[in-house]
Amino acid sequence: MLDTLDAPAVRTWCRLSLAALGQAREEIDALNVYPVPDGDTGTNLYLTVESAAEEVDRLFDAGTPSLADALRAMAHGALLGARGNSGVILAQLLRGIAAAFGTDPAVAADAAALCRALRGAADAGYEAVAEPVEGTVLTVAAAAADAAEAAAGRDPRADLAAVAQAAYEAARSALARTPSQLEVLSRAGVVDAGGRGLVTVLGALADAVSGHSPMGPLALAGSRAAEPVPSGPHTAAPGSPGYEVIYLLDAEDDRLPALRAALGGLGDSLVVVGGDGLWNVHVHVDDPGAAVEAGIAAGRPHRIRITHFAAADGSARTGYPDGWPGPGADPAGSPRGVVSVVHGQGLAGLCTDSGATVVHADPDRPPSSTELAAAVRRARSREVVLLLNDAELRPAAGAAAEQLRREGVRVAVIPTRSPVQGLAALAVHEPGRRFDEDVVAMTSAAGATRYAELAVAEGESWTMAGVCQAGDVLGLIDGDVAVIGAVIGETAAVVLDRMLAAGGELVTLILGEGVPDTVADHLVAHVRRANPVVDTVVYRGDQASSPLLIGVE
User: Fold this and answer.
1) Out of 95, 374, 383, 410, which residue is the most buried by the measure of CB atoms under 10 Å away?
2) Burial class (CB within 10 angstroms; exposed 0-12, middle 13-18, buried 19+) of 399
C-alpha cells in the first residue's frame, strides 16, 4: 500500500486501466446510447488509455521519471490518442489530475493531493464541454471528487488508498444513478457508457495504490437495467448531426474562443481539450468540411477523423483524408488477406511464405491495437483474418478490429494462443472460399491443434507441477506448467509423451533462438520410437520468447 503516489504507480495505473478496459470494452460499447448510439465508447476509451500507457512506457524507457513527468506523459498520450466524445473528456480529466499535482517535488503526493487532483479533473472536464449534461461521465467524475474530499474531511489521517477507494465507490454509485438523470439512458435501460469507463479507470487507480482489487467482478452491479440494450443500426437520432469530426489542432490559446464559437454554431457535443499549443477537438456536425475549415482558421489541424453515423449499411463509417481503408492504404489490394503476429525471424518467414502479412512482436511489449490495425491496412484487403498467436492480445485485437470495421474492412479475429495454432490455421487458408467458410475452417484447424512450449524459470515459484527454481526448464501444456525438468530435450520429451497419450497424427516443433538442431534430432527420434505412425516436422522459428514450441494435431 502506497503512502504517496509515485511514477511507478502511475505506470501501474495505466496498465491496469488498459487491461480492465480491454475486458469491459464490448460491454461498454453495448451501453453506448448517448450522445449518439454508435456503439464505440468502450473501444474509444480503450484506444485513449492505450495511447496514454504507451507514452508512459516510452518515458520509462528513457530513464527514471518523476511523478509529475509520468502524469504529464499519461495526460499527453491520452490527448494524442483520444477517440470519441468520452475519450476526449477522459483525456481532459487526466490533464486536470496532472495539473493539480503540479511539478514541485516538495509537495507531497498524498491523500490531500489526490483530493485536489480529482477535483481538478472534474472541474477541467466540465470546462472542456461546451454544454455539460448531467447523468454522464462528468457527473461520475464530480461524485468521485466529492467523495474523496468527504473521506479526507472525515478523517484528516485518511491515507491515499482510502481516498482512492472512496472515490471509486462513489463513482459506482453515481453511475447507477445516471438513468434517473438522463432520459435517453432510462428509455434504453442502461447506465452511461462513458461513466462506466471512468469507473473502470478509477477502480484501476484504487488497485494501483492499494495493491488490492476493488473492481471485483468486472460487471458492475447496476450497470445494466432489466431492459436489453437496443440493437440494430447505429444511427443518429432524427434531427441530430450526421457526422463526428475529431482532430488534433496546433493553435495558440487565444485562438480557441473563436474556434469554440464557430464549432458551436455548426453542431453539438463540442469538446475542446488540451493546452500549451496542442488541442484535441471533437464535435458532431452536418457539415464536416466546415468543422475542419474552422480548425484551419484557428491553426493547423491534423490526424483528422470523420465518422458518418448513418452509412448506407446502417453502420458508422470512418473516413480519412488519405482515403479508404485508412491512412496510407492502397485500396487496389487482394480481396482477402491474413495478418499474423509472430516472435522471431524464422516464424516470420514461415508466415510470409504462406502469404500472411506479419506483425513482429517484442516479447517485452506486445503490439498495440494501433500497430495491429496498421498491419491489417498493409494487407490491402477488404477481408482480413487476424491470427493473434497470443491470448493476451485479444483486447488489443478487438479494439483494432472495431476501428477497421468502421473503415469498411471486414475483419475476423481468430484467437490463436500459440504460433503452432496460427500455422495450422494458415495451412488450411483458402482465399477462393467464401470468407465465413474460410474463417470457420481456419478456426477449426487452430482449435484442433494442442500446443505446448518450454520456458526457463527466472526464480523460485509455485506451479501446478510443484515448486520450480531459477534455471529450471518448464514444460507448459495449454498454458499451464505440467513438467519441471533440468534439460530442454528431456523435458520436451516428457511433454510430448503426455500430449501424444491423448492421440495425434502430426507433431510440429519450432526451435527458438540459439537452440541447436540436435535437440530437434533427439525429439524426432523419440517420437518415432514411441509413436511410429506420428509424423514430425521441424522449423527454426528463432523466437526469443521460448526455446521450443510444440504443436500436436
Assistant:
1) 95
2) buried
Q: Which set of grid coordinates corresponds to residue 356?
A: 500472411
Task: Please give the full DSSP string across 336-369, using - where no structure is assigned.
Answer: EEEEEEESSHHHHHHHHHTT-EEEEPBTTBPPPH
C-alpha cell at 58: 516510452
Of 292, 301, 293, 304, the closest CA to residue 251 belongs to 301
Q: Is 310 helix (H, G, I), strand (E, B) or coil?
A: coil
Residues 482 and 476 sit within 8 Å (Cβ to Cβ): yes
Beta bridge partners of 362: 365
Q: How confident is the model at residue 336 (pLDDT cuts 50, 70, 90)?
A: confident
**Would you call 453 helix, strand, or coil by DSSP?**
strand
pTM (two decimals):
0.79
CA distances 500 to 337, 474, 493, 503, 521, Å, are: 33, 18, 10, 5, 18
Question: Which residue, 176, 174, 182, is CA-closest to 148?
Answer: 174
DSSP state of 268: E
Q: What is the pLDDT of residues 221-268, one digit of tens each?
A: 334 432 333 333 344 455 678 888 999 999 999 999 999 999 999 998
Report the candidate in 327, 363, 328 with the shortest Cα–Cα distance to residue 344: 363
What does the alpha-carbon distance between residue 140 and residue 426 come to, in Å, rounded to a whole number?
A: 47
CB 506 within 8 A of CB 552: yes
User: How high is the pLDDT of residue 327?
Assistant: 40
Q: What pLDDT digit, counting tens, does each position of 155-205 carry?
A: 767 799 999 999 999 999 999 999 999 999 999 999 999 999 999 999 999
**Terminal Cα-to-Cα distance of the chain (whole angstroms):** 47
| Cell 491512412 sits on residue | 327
Strand residues in 32-149 grouped as ranges (E): none
Report phi then psi at 305, rounded to 5.
Answer: -130, 130
Question: In b/e form, how buried is each residue of 26-62, taking b as 16+ CB within 10 angstroms?
Answer: ebbbbbbbbbbbbbbbbbbbbbbbbbbbbbbbebbee
